[in-house]
Structures are given as C-alpha cells and as structure tokens.
Give the backbone structure.
Amino acid sequence: MRPSAALLASALAVAPLCAQQSELRARIETFSADRADLERRYDAPMSAERSDRLRQRFQAELRGLREVDFEQLGRAGRIDWILFENHLRRELHELREEQRRDGELTSLLPFAAEVTALSESRRKLEDVDARSTAEAVDGIARAAAEVRDRLRRGDLDHVPPPLRERAARRLSALRRALRGWFRYRDGYDPQFSWWVRAPHEQADANFEQLGAALRALPRGSQEVDRTLIGDPVGGPALQQALTFEWIPYTPEELVEIAEREFAWCDAEMDKASAELGCDDWRQALELTKQSHREPGEQPKLIKELAHEAIDFLEARDLLTIPELAKECWRMSMMSREAQKVNPFFLGGNTIQVSFPTDAMAHIEKLQALRSNNEHFCRATVHHELIPGHWLQQYSQARHATWRAPFRTPFWMEGWALYWEMRLYDLGLAKTAKDKVGMLYWRKHRCARIVFSLNFHLGKWSGPECVDYLIERVGHERAAAEGEVRRSVGGAYPPLYQAAYMLGGLQLRALHRERVGSGELTERAFHDRILRQNSVPIAVLRASMAAELPPQRLPEWRF
C-alpha cells in the first residue's frame, strides 16, 4: 500500500528537524570527547597555555552553536541547544575565575610558572639540556625556601588563612606535576639523572616544608582545625552560579526559604516528640539515636530497608523500576578515614555504609553508632539506592547520554531529596521514631543551605558551621565536623550542599504543576524526569511545558 501525499509531506517536514537534532547531539558528543582530550594533553596546574587552549575551543563551539537555527529545532533539540549554550558560557566563566583566583597566589607560589613550563615541555616532548634544567629546578627550590622562611618569620601573617589553604592545595598539584616531570626521564637519561636528581630532591623537600608553613596559622590566630578553614567564594560568585542554574533568587533569599522549611520541620518534629512522650525534639532525637544495630548487623538492616523502599514504590505505582536496577546494586563498608569526611552513607551503584570499625577510638565508635541508627538509615538507604542515586545512575547510562556534560547537583541530589519529602508525605515512616529519623535528615538539608551559603558569603567560619549543625540539627560533633569538612574542603562546588533541598523544592513545585493538575500520573512524571538525564530543574520544567521553550527561559520562582 502506497503512503498518502499527506503522510509523505509530513515525513519530509520532520526529516530536516530530525537531522538538525541529530547533528546537535553529535556536536555535543564531539565537544565532550575534544574536551577530555584537551584536559589530558594540557594537564599542568596553573597553566596559562591550558586556559588559552580550552578558551579557544569553547569560544569556537559557542560561535558554531549560535549559527544553528534555533527556530527549526523541535522540543528536544531546543532543550539540548539551551543546555549546551549555557554549559559553554559557564565553562568560559569558570576558566576566567580559575585564572583570577590563581593570580591571587603569586606571592605565595612565585615559582609556579617555572614548574608549569617544565611539565608542559614534557608534554611537547622537547629535548632537555640537563645542566640548564638543573639550574632551573634549583631556582624553584630556592624560591620555595624563601617563601617558607618568610612564612616562618611572620612576614606573611597578613595573608588570610583561606588564601593560604588555597595556595597549599595548588602547591600539592605543582608538587605532583614536578615529580611526574622528573620521573619521566630519571633513570633513562644518565645526564639528566646526574644533574637534576639532587636539585629535584631539594625542591620536593622544600615543597613539603612550604606546604606545612602555609597550613600553619599566623601567629596570634585562634587555634582551629585547619581542615575546617575552607576558601569562601564570595557573594558575586554564588550569584553567578545560581544564574547558570536558572535560579532567580539571591543567596540571602535562599537562606530565608531554608528557614521557612526549617519551621515546618520543627513543627513536625514537635508532633513526633509528643508521640514519643518526650518534652522536646532533643530528647526525642536522643531516644532515636539509641536504636541502632549491633556491630556486624548493619548490612542486614540496609538490605531490609532497600527492599522496603522498592516494595513501597511499586505498591503505589510511583515510577518504573527495571528488574536489572533492583538486581545490580552493591554494598561496601567505609573505612575509619573515609568516615572522617563522610560520616553518613554514600551511594550510587554501591551503597557505602558508615558504621563503627574496630580501629576507631571508643568515642568515635559511639558517635558513629548514634549517627547511623536504624531510623536515620531509613531515609539514607532510599536516598542512595532506589529511588535515589542508583536508579538515577542506571537511567543516566541509558537515556539522553549525550547530556552527561550538563550534570547538576540540583537534579542529582534534588531528586533524592525530593523522594525523602515525597515518601514522608506518603507514610513510609511507620513510627514516631521513623518520623524523627526522616525529619532529622530534612532539617539537615535545610541547615546545609544556611551554613554553606553563609560560609561562602564570608559570614560564618568553618567552626561556626560545626556549632550550628550541633545546635540546630542535633549532629554528633564528629558528624558535624565531617559534614563541614566535606562542604568547605574544595572538592564540591559552592552550591552543592544547598542543591539538595533547593532541587527537591523545585521538583516538588514541578510535581504540583504537572501531577497536581492531572496532566501526568505519578509514574509518567517520575519516569520523564529520569529519562531527561541530569539537567537543571528549570530546563526540565521547560521540557514538560505545553509550548516550545524559547532560547531564554523565563524566570521561575518556585
């Protein structure tokens, strides 16, 4: 049977659209591969050459993208264009910020350019004159020693601890680069080894001593755990980061939102405390913390809670859970050292369980038991596994894979937090202790917004953040210190901790719009979120709207 003229016309109209959409996805995938190659090739820390080369690639891609006819793209193509254009602008901004922040370290790391030049010469496979190279490395060693001595004499006491901490982290990267450069020829080039080994050994030793001097507090400073110092980014940087996430609020407004959510948590906690016959939430929390499994029994509890969450979701037809996802998650136990930074669980395809080890001091064991009691675990398990991070990762590997560069904690952590709120509303907490446990985590997410934003605004110090978590949420001190250490140590972007609750609130608002209106079922809504991959929630909202999204998304005050 021959197709009708109308069908042929429709197919011909769709064909260019599909071609453009396919071309855009291929462009994103090519860019991601190019970016990975450039990062591997230009791997020297504090390198102007690296920044210039990446900037050239980003700018060229941005020019090419803006030549694409946006109006001819369908919904999925427009979403990809919006994400890619935002991603490129963010990459260019972050390059500028990285160079600016590195420029602030010149007086503390005056030898950085020389180390970088040596590392880059290796990547270019340039010949080496052993004697002149030895002189260059000796100069690096002497420059490091000079800064070390100035720090020890107190000549640089005016440099604030956060800047010293940033310099110490950059110094560690420079030290690794210099070691890698040296080992590349050492033992293979007799002239090189004869001339350069001694200067390199001296430079390496001086780097170690300089690192210790940088991390020593200035004379007269109040004694503080240096791992809690951190490096605040400041208000303008926070505001710019929020803009890239399409969040039209100031940091101060977000703190107010967190306080409103805190008030709700406090009211719910009062109800649960009354059910337990307790005078206040602290007494209820203390009672709940005492309900923990015995040593060796925690893995069994985690397995029970994982299956409980899956059964709860499927009984209510809340989302699609593939059989393979239920089958392929794993479990491991975290070491004592890992728990100093991650006092609670981590997740993904493997849930990493925090629980006392026999190597811990007695007080550490008690605090870890209390922090990972049965009722606290009820929320952490479904946050890390299903429907949380493991189900997200399973979906990311299968849907819209070209969007991997656009990942955002507002989708990744926001989704897991959204389910903490949704499952509480649906009655997963069976007892008053269960409610206390789930509310503890919800208060924790509110507190993350408050303390992380106040820290990066320069209003609170790391130790003040620790005290706040203990007082306002009820953390054990070791857990509070680990939480702050994780937040201010530089491994996470400044909005990461705020993204849990804020992303969850965005998804809750989107749920009201699409499910509350009757437009989508629970299952359809949640499945669509997972199949879009990790994207800012405002973009996710645009992908579900009735009309095609414009190039500039409208403000959404969720």
About this structure: The longest strand covers residues 330-333. Residues 144 and 207 are 6 Å apart (CA to CA).
